[in-house]
């Protein structure tokens, strides 16, 4: 089943390779969407794809790469767009594609 999920990750998540980590995991899972640093020092992720793949991405995001310290993850389900866009690192603010 196709799902979309937005994750806002807080903690020590900027300057530690977090966005590249998320992009690598998302690409390995075949997901579409984006990841971006927010001005409040959080990282935001929008991932779309197979439910199990999005779940696996979320589990990996909750631990992060070496050097990161994830304090919290806010999760919200979104309506899937159904568009195959690939998964990219974006600049904030992210414009909807």
Give an overview in words.
With 97 residues, the protein is α+β, with helices and mostly antiparallel strands. The protein has a single domain (2-84), classed as 2-Layer Sandwich (Alpha-Beta Plaits). The protein has 2 helices and 5 strands, in the order βαββαββ. The protein has helices at residues 18-29, 51-63, and strands at residues 2-12, 32-37, 43-50, 69-78, 87-89. The chain has a 5-stranded mixed beta sheet with strand order 4-1-3-2-5, covered by helices on one side.
Structure annotation, total helices: 2
Gross morphology: globular
Query: What would CATH call the architecture?
Result: 2-Layer Sandwich
Low-confidence stretches at least 5 residues in length (pLDDT < 50)?
none
Main sheet overview? 5 strands, mixed
Tell me, what is the CATH class? Alpha Beta
Mean pLDDT: 95
Q: Care to count the β-strands?
A: 5
Structural class: alpha+beta
Radius of gyration: 12 Å
Q: Quote the distance from N terminus to C terminus.
A: 22 Å
Overall tally of structural domains: 1
Helix percent band: 25-40%
Strand order of the largest sheet: 4-1-3-2-5
Task: Write down the secondary-structure element order.
Answer: EHEEHEE
Q: Determine the CATH topology.
A: Alpha-Beta Plaits
Roughly what fraction of the amino acids lie in strands?
Answer: 35-45%
